[in-house]
Each structure stands twice: as C-alpha cells, then as structure tokens.
Amino acid sequence: MQVVLSAINSKYIHTGLGLRYVGEYAKTQGHEVTLIEETINTPILAVLEKIMAVPAQVYGFSVHIWNKPFVFKLIRMLRKLRPQAAIVIGGPEVAFDAERIFAELPQADYIVQGEGELVFSELLQYLAGGGAVSQHIAYREGEQVNLNGGITVIEDMSLLPFPYPDLEKMLAEHKIVYYECTRGCPFNCAYCLSSISRSVRKRPLELVLRDLDRFIAAGVPLVKFVDRTYNLDEKYFLPMMQHLAQADTNATFHFEIKADILSERVMDFLATVPKGRFQLEIGIQSTHQPTLKAINRQDNWEKLAANVKRLLSFGNMHIHVDLIAGLPYEDLPTFAKSFDDVYGLGADMLQLGFLKVLPGTQMRRETEQHDLRYMDEPPYEILATKYMPYEDMLYLKHLDNILDQTANSGGFKYTLRALLRASGMTAFAFYKQLTQWWVKAGFYPQTHNDKGVAAILKQFIEENYVEQQTELLEILRFDVFCEIPQWRPEWLKWQTEAIYEVVSAFWRDEEKVRRYIPAYKFSSWRQIHKLYPIELFKADWETGNAEEIFVMLDNSGEQQKLIKLPIEVK
C-alpha cells in the first residue's frame, strides 16, 4: 500500500525515531512508505501541502505532548481533502486513552496502542483486504470504541530494522541522531509512562554494535540514546560503551543513567574514556524522602552523590543532572534543600523541569489526593499543588530561566562560584537573590546571549556586592576572556595596552615561548593574538584573592588550554 507517515518534531534538528522504525519495518513487509518530517514551527498549510503531494491510501501520525494541537488540526484538514483515506495515529499522547481521543478527534480511524512496528504493518495488511483488524489497534464500531487488546510491546527487538536509511541526508541537515537499544523500564516512577511496561527488552548486542558502527562510519557527531535507564545490565551496556570508547571517532554519545547503581568496574572504565566521547544525564528529581517515596523512586543519595562527584573529577564527560518541581510533598523550603543538594554536586548542567501530569500515569490518578492543578492541554504542566502555591511555582519558572542563562550556559562558571562565596548564602538563597533582582531590573523574560548576560552580571555585582566588586569584576573579566573570544567590552578594564611591552618581550623570546607552546610557529601577529591571547588579571579566579596573574589561552587545538605565564610587570 501507499503510506505517508508524518513526524512533526519540536525542533528542526530533532528526528522522529519511533515513526522511522514503523516506516522501515513496513517497507520490509512490501509497503511503499514516504516519511515526512517537519516541525511545529512550520506553517501548517505548508505541511499539509507536502502530505497532499503524495496520493496515499493510509496516513499515519505520531502524537506527542509537543505536537498534539498541531497534528490534530492537520488531521482535521486532511480528512476534508482525503475522505476515503485511512488515518492512523499513535504515540504516547494517544495510546493510553483511545476512547477520549476518538471523542476529541473523530476524523481518526485507528489508534495504535503501544509499540506499533508490527501491528501497524498488520493493519496495513488488513486495509489491503485481508483478515480482521490486528490486535492492539483501537477502532470505532458504530458508537462504541473497541480497544482490541489494549497496549502492546515489541518483545523481540531484533525484528526492528535500522531506522536511518537517509543517514547522509540527516548529517547534511545537521540533525541529531536518536537511538535505542532497550525499551521498557523496571522502575515505577509515578509521573512516567515508561513504567507502564515493567519489562525491559534488549536489542541483541551484535546488532547494536553494527548499528553504532554505521553511525561512526558516517561521521555522526552526536548520538542520543533514548533508553530510559541505559545502565541496567552491566553485561549488556558495558561492552557497548567499551566498543564506543575504543572507536576511532570524534562522535559524542549521550546516555541517561542511574548513577547510584554504577559499579566500581564501570567507574574505573569511565575514568579512561576519551574526553568528550560520552555525555551522562542523571535524573535525580528530588532528595526529599517523602517525595521520593510518593513517586516510587528508591535512590541511594549517598552513593549517587559520591559517584557523580567522582565522575566529575575525571574531567572527561559532560554531566547533566535533573530536578523536577511540583512533586508531591515538596514545598518551596524542601525543594530548596533538594536544589542545594544537587547544585552542590557541581555538575555541568542542572536542568530544572516541571512536573507533567501525563494521562495514564499514577500522578494523573492521584490528582485529587495532592490537589494537582495543571494545564488541561499538552504539555499538562503543573501550575500549583497542595504543597506549592502558584506564586512559588512562578518563582521557580523565573529561576529556571535565569539558571539556564547563567550557570547552565557554562560561560560564567568562576563568576558564579565567586558570587556564591561572596554571598555567604546557600545556592538556592543566592539564586533567589539573583532571580528577584533580575526580574525587578526588567531582564526577564527575555533571552540574553552571553554578552548580554555578562553585562547583566556586571550590573548585579555593582549594585549588590559593592565591597567585593573589584575582585568579582576581575573574575567576570576572566570568564569573558575565556568564553567569549575576541570580545573586549570597554566596561571591563582590559590591560592590553598596559602590558604591551612585557607581552611583546615574551613573544620575542622564542625559546621561552616553546616551553609553553611546543609546536609554536610564527605566522603573523594577527594570527598570534587570535590563537594565543594574553591578559593580566588582578584576582585569582579560583580563590578570589587579589594577585596579579598573566594568562595565555592556547586556541590552536580542538580543546582550549589555559596557561599561567611567569611574566612580571616592570
């Protein structure tokens, strides 16, 4: 049959992995499949035009919290133009409540409930004229909805084909490659749909390694594993990681892990991984024990914290940790404690998320118990709870915005550390001070680039840390020097002219230069100043102590190097 599958992604760089599996499997069963990928930012009539350009008998759509309104509008228009075609929908936003979805979208003919690769192809066979509607495909019979067996999963993941036949095209378009080697989750987190299938199913390791080698051979820069908990079975995931660590590639592989179950063997291995090869995302969500119990999480905080700090000490991986606001039994003071605990780990990024009360989850069923007030439409984000009023939740939204532009940007690491020391506050209290000032000063809700944030932090320091501003502004200048190349705003006191003579003398002494840059070769003064800028700072960025330090940045390689130079100002 002629089939069109439409993946409407949240961003251009994203790819619809699930629908790719569905389409590639259908091709193995003899069906002609066209995949159309667009985003929610594309004009809807332009998407409709692309879909209508293919005269298919079946149109399939994957529905998620980020695209449901867009997809439903699209389907309503498509039905008017293709009244005889079969319209099939699937995905987590529709699979768990077919009766409600059919009432909301009568234009849909079938709903795939669960993992759809096999049952969608069986449905195509039925539509081509054979047999009955396949199990796990919900459909209407008159006024009634036949759930037809409910949710299904793929037990044998070796049946799934490689989902990226267009890998070269994706790379040309700079898209992220998503991949999964397991499905399901053994845990039972109250807010998550993955817990509905408690069984974990694995793609055979030899097939996974073959798939990964295809990514490496193609030069894919980033592969994000979507497995809910990647490191469940050491005998399975460790050989995979070892294979990736030994590969001749510059690719980065992103995994979501549970840090408190990492063994000593795995930790020792991770210490040896090439820099930049892996990124680890660690969902902590809360450190408040009544909250963790309510959401069915059983993390060992002491082990988790120790392992995260040790991972960070290796200095070879980006470590990303998550918190969720709006969980049961967590008010602002207890959330502040969770924030302080997690911020204190020193991860490269602390992502503050907000509870999504998804249909089909335990959290949705416990709405009344916890007085959960949330958006009726996707993304079903929490607005207030019995424990946290709207005003507190709103403050956390402000904090999230400002945290992303400061700490999570990675551009002001030393400035923020110095400010936290100078404040004498907890991390949460300091960011409360910064957030309230930021909002009052009129910088929220705009998004600022690093140059804008640097100017905002300068103003914050001058208005709130008058006694320490000399050292703090020097450290801000250091962050700007390292993170925003070639940008030298006048309002930061640059020493370029004052140190011109001593820096020139350094460059004239080629023997001394080679001690710090062994591969140094003169090309032009312009190139020297671009690749090896030198600046004098009058405060130590690590301690905040007042002292004169000459710093050179070596930008000649893939990784920037910071070199302290023993130059004296005469």
From TrEMBL:
Domain Radical SAM core: 171-397
Gene3D superfamilies tied to this protein: Cobalamin-binding domain, tm_1862 like domain
Sections of the chain in a coiled coil: none
UniProt-listed InterPro entries: BchE-like, Cobalamin-bd, Cobalamin-bd_sf, DUF4080, Elp3/MiaA/NifB-like_rSAM, Methyltransferase_Class_B, rSAM, rSAM_horseshoe
Cofactor(s) demanded: [4Fe-4S] cluster
Keywords associated with the record: Iron, Iron-sulfur, Metal-binding, S-adenosyl-L-methionine
Assigned GO CC terms: cytosol
Gene Ontology molecular function: any one: cobalamin binding
Name of the protein: B12 binding domain protein
Organism of derivation: Phascolarctobacterium succinatutens YIT 12067
